[in-house]
Amino acid sequence: MAALGDIRKVTWEKKMRDFFTGIYNVYGFILRFLREVFVPPYEFREIIRQCYEIGYRSLGIITLTAFITGIVFTKQSRPSLSEFGATSWLPSLISIAVIRALAPLITALVIAGKVGSNMGAELGSMRVTEQIDAMEVSSTNPFNFLVVTRVLAITVSLPILVTYFAFIGLIGGYLNIHTNELTSFTSFIQDAFAKISFLDLFASFIKAVVYGFTIGITGCFKGYHATQGTVGVGRAANAAVVLSMFLIFIEEMIIVQFVNYFR
Asked: Confidence band (pLDDT; 50, 70, 90) for 2?
């Protein structure tokens, strides 16, 4: 029994040591990014290519997700408002829900699953096949070319995708409202933005930037430090998605509380 207790104690100590070591490594990774982002050479061509891969190639799934979200949310909200004879509040309700919460959150989750896993797998495969080591030996800076460009690209692209999601989501909501209430597009827009303030738009933008940076750093960190061959690549891709989504929900709660303090 004593030996079993010692084994458990050693295992617990190892887990705690690995946990704090991981936090330290992430902290160092972020500091290195903040240092490298201002150091030339600046890979503008690679940043633009990554923006194309992250942003343009994600428009299809973002369009479908946003349109369905707008329609479904409107359909689910109408019966409750109808009980109080307040279906005229639907445009305002949809715009508040989409702009304040749904657009940044759902877009970030979709991109985390699509782009975050790709970053983890791509950099992980380069690490286990020693391509990153070869770049370091050849006197190039793989961190600047592989990590900085991807993090900057997703941090820039996500606010654009969030804006696009909000627009498509509102279009989906309008089509559903127009079908049932014959509301004109002008009236819908006026009612939708009557309750939206600059603080709502600014908070949504801040969320998008923070989520994009989180997804980029998490995916690149997991891929850049992948080990154990092809198995490690799969683990890096999976960990990038799971950890990104977990951090996004934590950041969502923190930002909402902070914004509500000023509301």
From this structure: very low
The model's pLDDT over 66-124, given as tens digits with 9 standing for 90+, comes to: 999 999 998 888 888 777 777 778 888 899 999 988 999 999 999 999 998 899 889 88
Contact 234, 137 (CB under 8 A): no
Measured distance CA(167)–CA(103) in Å, rounded: 9
Give the C-alpha separation, 236 to 52, whole Å: 23
Crossing angle (nearest 10°) for helices 198-224 and 103-111: 10
For residue 90, the number of C-alpha atoms closer than 13 Å in the C-beta half-sphere is: 32
Distances in Å between the Cα of 89 and the Cα atoms of 23, 77, 183, 192, 253 are 46, 10, 12, 9, 26
Measured CA to CA, the distance from residue 242 to residue 261 in angstroms comes to: 29
Tell me the pTM: 0.90
Q: Residue 76 is which amino acid?
A: Q
Residue 8 has a pLDDT of: 56
CA distance 251 to 118: 22
CA 231 to chain CA centroid, Å, is 25
